[in-house]
Amino acid sequence: MLSRRHLIVTGGAFALPVALPLLQVQAAPAIASGDPVAIVNAIYTRAVKTKNGGDFHGKSARAKYLSTAFATLWDKAEAKAPEGEPGPVEFDPVSNSQDPDIKSFTTSSEKQSDDSATVAAKIVGRRGKRDKAADSIIRYDFVRENGAWRIDDIRGAVDGEEWSIRAILNDSLKPQSGQR
Question: Per the domain annotation, does 6 fall within a domain?
Answer without folding.
Answer: no
